[in-house]
Amino acid sequence: MMFPKPIILIIHQTRLAASYASTLEKTGAEVHAVTSFQEANELLSFLHPDIIILASKLNNLDGREYCQEIRATIAHPRPVLVLLDSSNDIQDRINSFRYGADDVLGEPIDVSELAIRIMAHLRRRNEEMLNPLTGMPGPQVIRRMIEQTINSEKPHAYMSIDLNRLRIYNDTYGDLAGDQLIKALAAILLDVVSGTNFVGHLEEDDFFLISSVDQAEKIAKNICNNFDKISQSFYPKEDLTRGYLIALGHAGIRRRVPLISVAIGIVNNYNKRYSSYVDVLTSTRDYRYLAKTKIVSHYMSQPVEEELLNTDKINNTATNNEARVEPAKNILVVEPDGAMACLLQESLSLEGFSVQVTNAAYDALKLAKGSPQPDLILLESNLKDRFMNGWELCRSLKEDPKLKSIWIVVVTSNPDQTAALEAGADLYLPKPFDLPSLLHEINALLNKGYSIHHFI
Predict the structure, then answer these.
(1) How far is CA 103 from the centre of its chain?
(2) Are 268 and 314 members of one domain?
(3) Both 156 and 304 in a single domain?
(4) What is the domain count for the chain?
(5) Which of 8, 183, 260, 313 is 20 to 30 Å from 247 at the Cα level?
(6) Do both 217 and 297 map to the same domain?
(7) What per-residue string of b and e applies to 83-115 under the rule 16 or more CB within 10 Å gives b?
(8) CA pair distance 20, 41, nearest whole angstrom
(9) Where are the alpha helices (DSSP H) in 61-110?
């Protein structure tokens, strides 16, 4: 796996700065040498060195005070400060540490010893920048890698990778189980990358991968396939057989949530030139968000999706000046309690919905097949109907190919939420329920708030 080049800044007299730079460049580092603290400040306005090597005295200025200045002005992660001091006075060296130097080396110093000591500091710095959960390169290393590749002549592909519905998984099985799933994804990522690729761990389940443009989609497909295979071992047999988890929300609301999957967004610097690492992160996450529209593990890649986005822009432009009136959403209320049916009809009508009401399962099935077809059915499970009960009606609706897309919200005093969800209900609300909560959930469903992104 490739890593970003370490960056070293040397602040010293011309001859010594050149000598040190020549040696340190042989270690593979990117080395910048200047001969004054003023020049260093100009570089530091855009350069983010890992290590600064500086003289204790330069042009009658005190290098120790410059160390103090660096500590006060540069935010984390601050560069390692290595002070070169020609003084043999122990107290002088102690004072250098007090001013803020991380290491003090005697000068003159053999260039080979200097290189070994600098490499040791770099090794320690790299270890501090690893993600503690996975041991992979963390946010600062990822930033450096992106900055170095977006400015290179060679095109690269950038991938943002995370898990869908991890929060629900953690709520169900615990954070420790979720951490093991994140580690499993990390192992998959490390397995698919080659020596010319880079992969890092930003936070929680958020990963970032850099590859060649021609290999990006193949890598993404392998990640999805491998995760789908291995993730099955992270579920109890009964949950795996059922094919979904039961999520508990506000006011006792339950809903079916698909099993965990991977979402990947891919962009490249061949089709578009990026100005900063923030630009790259934002773009990859935009495409990752599009990948989340699929329940299964999925990736979205820039070249294909760019056409869709451009088509949307054209369509939006064409209709921009046209008045668009959204038709009212249709809701069918199936409620045997007359008073409750009237309350629901009035409340939903005030929300702007077109509402039909029935107390019989047979009529409900007939209305569902009629025109206009309801967008959502609010169903009481305890129907006093010879034809079928609420559970059977719910199952019949979901088994009909022409009706299965209708949202079904079951309200019931039956405490078995599993029975409701297994019958096909999209939401289960125990009675008595809070009417504002019900209205909020219905609005969210009809706006497709839960169909794609809720609980991701």
Answers:
(1) 38
(2) yes
(3) yes
(4) 3
(5) 183
(6) yes
(7) bbbeeeeeeebeebeebbbbbbbeeeeeeeebb
(8) 20
(9) 63-73, 90-99
Q: Which residue has the tokens 């009401």?
A: 357
Is 2 within the bounds of a domain? Answer: no
73-124 pLDDT per residue, tens: 987 789 999 999 988 888 988 999 999 999 999 999 999 999 999 999 999 9
Structural domain boundaries enclosing 437: 330-446
Residues 152 and 299 in one domain: yes
Neighbour-count burial of 311, counting CB atoms closer than 10 A to its CB (0-12 exposed, 13-18 middle, 19+ buried): exposed
| Residue that is written with structure tokens 């890593």 in the block | 3
Task: Report the CATH number at residue 173.
Answer: 3.30.70.270
Give me the residue label for tokens 């397995």: 191
Higher pLDDT, 248 or 231: 231
Q: How far apart are CA 181 and CA 204, in angstroms?
A: 11
Edge-to-edge order in the sheet of strand 80-85: 30-34, 7-11, 51-55, 80-85, 103-106
Residue found under tokens 């270690």: 27
* CATH code (residue 396): 3.40.50.2300
Answering whether pTM is above 0.85, one says no
